Fold each of these.
Amino acid sequence: MITSNERMDHFMNRINSGEKIEADDWMPDDYREALIRLISMHGISEIMGALPEKEWVPKAPSIYRKLAIMAKVQDEMGHGQLLLRVAEDLMEPLGRNRDDIMKDLFSGKLKFHNVFHMKAPTWGDAGVIAWLVDGAAIISQTMMLGTSYGPYGRALKRICAEEVFHAQHGESIIMALAEGTKEQRTLLQDSINRWWTSLLMFFGPKTNVETGHSHQDKNMRYKLRTKTNEQLRQEFLTKYVPRVWALGLTIPDPTLKFDEETSEWQYQQPDWEEFKKIVTGHGPKSKERLALRMRSYEMNSWVREALGTSKVSNIAR
Amino acid sequence: MESLEYRECLIELIYQLADDDFLLAYRGSEWLGLAPHIEEDVAFASISQDLMGHAALYYGLLEELGEGKIDHLTHNRSPDYFRNAILVELPNGTGTYLENPSYDWAFTVVRNYFYTLAKKVRLDSIKKSSYEPLQHIVQKISIEMSYHMMHWEVWFKQLISSTAEAKSRMEEAMSIVFAELGGVFSYGRIGDRMERLSLIESEEVLKERWMVYLNKENIQYSMKMKQGDGRNGIHTPHLAEALATLSEVYQSVATAEW
């Protein structure tokens, strides 16, 4: 007879020796819960993340930009699908499914990334989102590649490969604007000003002091992640601050500088109270984007119902 | 290149093909994020990209024929120069893609299925056309189009053989689509010359082939051109609205490269 302690020890040994946990393996309840929270939030963020950029798809300023941004937003939806499939497998033993994920989103129980609560009022934002928001996502997702949960790691591998194209697509939009007319440069600078704080917030608070709670420690113990929020933010700053400056653009933080002694970037802390408000559904666009998502869910309910009873099978053709 | 007349007819035909795909791709792009489920969102976005890619091939040919740059042709022509059929310019439903969209999936399925079927019939005929560069493009496009056909055919058959509500929505959608389907087959005012110059077969022959294909489903409707005559530049206000949206950024800074 194996005691529950022994089972737990065995599980932790597997994780600590670098083994991957698979969907059908035994796992402690709080590991499963942590995964469901993390992956369904990630998946739904991809889907909600399609919404700000989607605003610019029909308006992209040339046929090739239209093609590129459509492909990009499609990828995000595809990532969402991939991740929700992983989350669905984890939820199955608990008797929950994708419909529950959608309902949790609509009720506000399931949160999505702070950046996707923000306004994207110009074409410059389409560029900045693809270049810097996707750039930030690459940094945090690359760190997760070594995650102890196998199915999540495999999904991330595919996602990261596509994100690289997105950042290049963003860079191309940014370059055209940076090398363009005075109006275009202003458009770009305004977008960077608008997005800077959100980009710092993207990685989450440094410690739980800022927001009162954090899943960071548990997620590190379970090897779901390998770096802290602050480490990721520092990597982002190291990679992108010099690039922004090289384009002759400015960053709206006069205190921003690299401290040679500590080898760290110093920056103005974003307002973490504001962050809390945003991710709990009180950001500038939270309600509108959720309403759009809900609307699509409701206006197509007859289709889902029809598919459930259709006599013609998709597979049979 | 042969006579001036040949050139005129050829250019007119390519505009019809290009503008049809371009506008329907645009309508498809408005659905992004709003499709019935996530899997369909991904699939539909692929199709819309393909259609826009097809349009880009045709516009490329027009550019070679001296009609102007692709971006000008797509983002800077006034509505009466567009040669698309009314069917592809009609909105997806009420509201806009940004505000209060109330989009009609039944209409989208029927429009896309019937359009793709008409596109197949048209392209098959153009494969025998007298202009070789167009033949090459059409052969390329046909490969992707066959996947679109399968996709919309599955949707069409599933929904029409499902719940009573789905069936009635599909029938309603069919009556709207048939009312404009005649405009898809029309070649406009110089159509008879297009036929004479062997660019494409007659409208009647193509319509008949389309009907033969669809009659397997026992559908009794007739094709009309109810709200306008797109091939002759007579459009609904929906086209002007669509063009204003799709060219908003392009036109916001004159002379800019994007």
Amino acid sequence: MIKKVRLATVWFDGCAGCHMSLVDIDEAIISVAGRVDVVYGPLVDAQEFPKAVDVTLIEGAISSQEDLEKVQEIRKRTKLIVALGDCAVTGNVPSMRNQIQPRKLLERIYIEGAQTNKGIPTDGVPALLRQAVPVHQVVKVDLHVPGCPPAASAIAYVLGELVEGRIPNLTAKVKFG
Amino acid sequence: MPGQISIRIDGEYVTAQVGQTILEVARANGKYIPTLCWLESITPVGACRLCIVEVSGVNRLLPACTTPVQDGMSVTTQSEKLQAYRKIALELLFSERNHICAVCVSNNHCELQGMAQKLGVNSIRYAYSFPKLSVDVSHERYVLDHNRCILCTRCVRVCAQVEGAHVWDVSSRGIHSLVVSDMAKPWGEAVNCTNCGKCVNSCPTGALAEKGFAVEEMVKRDGKVTRLAARRGGQQ
């Protein structure tokens, strides 16, 4: 029996659209499912990021202190990291806050913009980083799959190649936006 | 024929006219050289550096759009080195401004985005500058979004050369450069603007757009501008 690929998916500062695109690969999901063990991610129950992961798909920009610490740990525990989608690859929409100081941004939204319960939430929410940045700005990324979201066909192709132990060639197959 | 010379492009002998650029001769002979700032029949400026080529005996890369051909010249249009430098030029353009394709009016119709796909640029190796830039919505019909501008100066050139209004210019230097209308007045107050829209239709990105268009809806038609320019004798 072929050894299954230990696959994790993570969701940082993004809209979950890339995960939607991932489950939108139609019948390709059947052949992929037979070749991978999904060991972590929003689609499964695991609470802690496991060790010895073969492939991690990262959706979202690195926006908070928590994202930063998590992604550094993920890098240590993963052989191959895929930045999935524009937020992970470029910063995309989350990076549109980067011209504004986080403090001013939060005041504008939670104090000036609030009708009731004015105040910046601090309990149970991580501190924002000064800027939302692409994943490769903080850890090494092995493969970039841009798109907002990446086309399901591109994701199916990437997974199909990765489970066969090949690095997909994405030239002309993907685009920003 | 007087003025006719012979040059080599990617090893192939082709004839050219004195005064033609490498790009013109390459295109006339079916050779593809990527371009962004170049616009047919408009004076070339060599701003984007995507059309760089290798010329034997010259130890630096030359922009094909502004380099005139010379008799006996041997030009290489495709090589690993050129591909690498073209990618660098493109990635620097992306890193300089806020090109958020997903929420841009020109998404899927953008020459910058299309070029990234064509050249296989899937990520930007340089840290993004995330500059704070304004959006000028003062014009009745059009919008100027500096976040998407690559300073190709097509707007500057078509306004001056085709419309004859010369509303646009580039202010400041280097990374601080900005296209400005009527000596840096809000576009809506630019009395020289004829509202013709040639700049908008020539703009390769979402930097200049018509009002009332949502994400992905802005389709540019630079053919109108270049045909008019060609009928008037083209670039001089």
